[in-house]
């Protein structure tokens, strides 16, 4: 879409469309468009460099080299080791792998798992499925701002607790949890800590070592990369069963022929976000806060989530007497 200067208004250095007829996409929490630079990086891996990473011939080695370069880029965005970074088909697959894989690998140790009440459906539904298999799930409530109570979490962890799964930033209301403190509590209690970072990866700084994260799910298509590609950080030494069995792909953590083109695109998006994350966030916060402040001037309008501890690109409100979907 090309926009003439006459169609733009400026606010604190950020440009806004002034023509009400222009289409504005506001569903970036659901998915993002692929960055043209990402698309350019992906193209050769569809019909020129099309090898299978498990093949030993030239095309296979070429694909394997691209895979490891991509792994380096994605791992660098969260300060992970290369062999701790596992590519998957989506963050949903990653979340399923964590809950079911940790549950089955550690069932002799205990069958108690803690999740927050506002996890993504892929976590909540996996937890519900595990309940049917005899596991006990505790759903931690959140306060009016969407944050868990750290003292309550600490008191809820038991001797038979094997996993705590708390989303980094909620996909609906945008609230950011205090992941570093949660990780500290879990480390002291000797419990595995998983965080679903599908919404925050590439938007907020993540350091899995500093934050004491054992497992972290992330996604490509929330950060201007392609759909159908995600990943999972698995800290070395973590006892986990793979969800998919087959060949020895991905350090034997996830069998299946890899989507090399998608992974290359994911890596390119990671490189771009590593360079542009801070400047993008500053611009988004200006737009976010202006939109929130102006919308709250409407009678009977209310903000969902935390006022400041929220994703830079998230605005979530509710209006009295109005059905949300409409």
Description of the structure:
This protein is α/β, with parallel strands linked by helices and 326 residues long. The chain has 2 domains: 5-33 and 277-319, Aspartate Aminotransferase, domain 1 (Alpha-Beta Complex), CATH 3.90.1150.10; 41-271, Type I PLP-dependent aspartate aminotransferase-like (Major domain) (Aspartate Aminotransferase, domain 2). Helix content is 35%, strand content 15%. The protein has helices spanning 36-42, 44-47, 58-76, 91-105, 121-132, 150-156, 179-188, 249-252, 260-295, and strands at residues 8-11, 14-17, 85-88, 112-116, 136-140, 161-165, 192-196, 215-219, 230-234, 301-303, 317-319. Helix 1 (36-42) packs antiparallel against helix 9 (260-295) and helix 4 (91-105) packs parallel to helix 5. The longest helix is centred in the C-terminal third of the chain and has 36 residues, at 260-295. The relative contact order is 0.16. The model is unreliable at 1-8 (pLDDT under 50).
Shape: globular
Kindly report the name of the CATH homologous superfamily of the largest domain: Type I PLP-dependent aspartate aminotransferase-like (Major domain)
Order of helices and strands: EEHHHEHEHEHEHEEEHHEE
Decide which structural class fits the backbone: alpha/beta
CATH architecture of the largest domain: 3-Layer(aba) Sandwich
What is the number of domains?
Answer: 2
CATH topology of the largest domain: Aspartate Aminotransferase, domain 2
CATH secondary-structure class of the largest domain: Alpha Beta
Biggest sheet descriptor: 7 strands, mixed
How much of the polypeptide forms β-strand, as a percent range? 5-15%
What is the strand arrangement across the widest sheet? 3-9-8-7-6-4-5
Could you tell me the number of beta strands?
11
Number of helical elements: 9
Share in helix = 25-40%
Mean pLDDT: 93
What is the radius of gyration computed over CA atoms, rounded to a whole number of angstroms? Answer: 21 Å
- Cα-to-Cα separation, first versus last residue: 26 Å
Low-pLDDT stretches are 1-8
């Amino acid at each position: 879409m090309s926009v003439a200067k006459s169609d733009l208004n400026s606010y604190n250095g950020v440009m806004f469309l002034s023509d009400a007829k222009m289409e504005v996409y506001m569903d970036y929490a659901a998915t993002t468009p692929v960055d043209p630079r990402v698309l350019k990086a992906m193209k050769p891996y569809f019909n020129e460099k099309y090898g299978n990473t498990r093949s030993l011939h030239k095309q296979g080695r070429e694909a394997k080299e691209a895979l490891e370069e991509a792994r380096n880029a994605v791992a660098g965005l969260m300060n992970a080791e290369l062999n701790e970074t596992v590519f998957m088909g989506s963050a949903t697959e990653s979340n399923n792998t964590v809950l079911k894989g940790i549950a089955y690998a550690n069932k002799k140790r205990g069958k108690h798992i803690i999740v927050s009440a506002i996890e993504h459906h892929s976590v909540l539904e996996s937890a519900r499925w595990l309940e049917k298999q005899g596991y006990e799930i505790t759903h931690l409530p959140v306060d009016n701002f969407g944050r868990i109570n750290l003292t309550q979490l600490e008191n809820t962890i038991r001797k038979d607790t094997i996993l705590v799964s708390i989303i980094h930033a909620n996909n609906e209301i945008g609230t950011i949890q205090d992941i570093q403190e949660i990780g500290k509590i879990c480390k002291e209690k000797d419990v595995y800590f998983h965080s679903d970072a599908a919404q925050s990866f590439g938007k907020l700084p993540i350091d899995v070592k500093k934050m004491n994260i054992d497992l972290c799910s992330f996604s490509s298509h929330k950060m201007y990369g392609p759909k159908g590609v995600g990943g999972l950080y698995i800290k070395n030494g973590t006892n986990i069963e793979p969800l998919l069995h087959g060949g020895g792909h991905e350090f034997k953590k996830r069998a299946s022929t890899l989507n090399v083109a998608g992974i290359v695109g994911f890596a390119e998006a990671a490189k771009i976000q590593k360079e542009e994350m801070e400047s993008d966030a500053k611009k988004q916060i200006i737009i976010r806060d202006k939109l929130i402040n102006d919308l709250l001037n409407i009678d009977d309008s209310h903000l969902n989530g935390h006022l400041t501890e929220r994703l830079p690109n998230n605005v979530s409100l509710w209006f009295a007497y109005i059905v949300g979907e409409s």
